[in-house]
Specification:
single chain, alpha/beta, Rossmann fold, four-stranded antiparallel beta sheet, 8 helices
Length: 317
């Protein structure tokens, strides 16, 4: 019998679909979608998966100041002097740089040790560690945080209740938790199915499910903020689909070409093609950004659709 990992209900759980070796299930009591089994992959899975790959050579990291999740979180978690913030699943530390700029003393942990090296070596962040969230309770001095953030982390873990209970134990009384998760009731449903399926995502969330989770783990003053539908969301998932299709085509050997490197004329032609390709890429990128901004403005003004993400902010009681 399949029990909901959030509310432990077993009678009102229905099968949505089967995906590979997983059952995708929905609990009508707390309104959580989850998979069975929920066995979290190890770090190697995320390091090998194209959706999560991090480059470590010749990289120029950009501070993601235009990320809706980060902007919205920092609106609710404005720091006072000497307040501390822990980011679980910090990646290469992009959000930590923003939070540090707002005045937080910042700490971070991520399962990908390559991303942590970037956070240290490129972003010069001192208090970042490699490891899973289960390790947090044993890290000396990592206690009594004023804020803990988890951006698109909860859907990857096999025990979301345990994770948020651990977060509660790391916060000061009155401290804030800020969580973003993929939204189950998004619209239109054009997002990439592979991305939202196990073992990428074990759970998809509703506002009700988030509320149940936070109240169950000792939080109150809960605010759930839905992200508006934005053009970048649509483009991002279309891009992931295109990458997967391109990988499939390459595996079949379709359209592959061999260049004759022994010919000087061939090398010259290849160099010219690279220059043209780079110019074309830059022009296309500029046009794309302008088009995305226009589409996002239209979606915002017309109130069409429901975005991909839910943001929850709550206070430890």
């Amino acid at each position: 019998m399949n029990c909901c990992p959030l509310c432990q209900n077993a009678t009102n759980v229905v099968l949505v679909r089967r995906q590979g070796g997983y059952d995708v299930l929905y609990c009508s009591d707390c309104r959580l979608q989850f998979s069975n089994p929920m066995d979290s992959p190890d770090a190697a899975f995320y390091q090998q998966c194209s959706l999560y790959q991090v480059r470590s050579k010749g990289v120029r990291l950009v501070v993601p100041s235009d990320d809706w999740r980060y902007q919205a979180c920092l609106e609710f978690c404005a720091p006072k002097p000497n307040q501390s913030l822990l980011d679980i699943g910090c990646g290469d530390g992009g959000f930590l740089v923003l939070a540090q700029g707002k005045g937080f003393d910042v700490f971070g942990i991520d399962i990908d040790d390559r991303a942590i090296r970037l956070a240290r070596d490129v972003r010069n962040l001192e208090h970042v560690k490699s490891g899973s969230w289960e390790r947090l309770q044993s890290v000396e001095g990592w206690r009594d945080f004023d804020a803990v953030t988890l951006f698109d982390v909860l859907e990857h873990v096999s025990s979301p209740v345990s994770l948020i209970a651990t977060v509660s134990g790391l916060l000061k009384p009155g401290g804030l938790v800020c969580i973003t998760v993929p939204r189950l009731d998004r619209y239109p449903r054009v997002f990439d199915v592979e991305t939202d399926s196990p073992p990428h995502h074990f759970t998809l969330w509703t506002a009700n499910a988030l509320d149940v989770l936070l109240r169950k783990t000792g939080f109150g003053e809960i605010r759930i903020i839905p992200k508006p539908l934005m053009a970048q969301d649509l483009f991002g998932h279309a891009f992931w689909r295109a990458k997967r299709l391109a990988r499939s085509v390459r595996k079949k050997g379709i359209g592959s070409r061999r260049e004759d490197s022994s010919s000087a004329g061939s090398r010259s032609t290849s160099a010219e093609r690279r220059v043209v390709s780079e110019l074309t890429r830059r022009v296309a990128s500029s046009a794309l950004m302008g088009g995305l901004a226009l589409v996002s403005w239209f979606l915002r003004e017309s109130h069409l659709g429901r975005g991909h993400t839910l943001l929850a902010v709550a206070k430890k009681l």
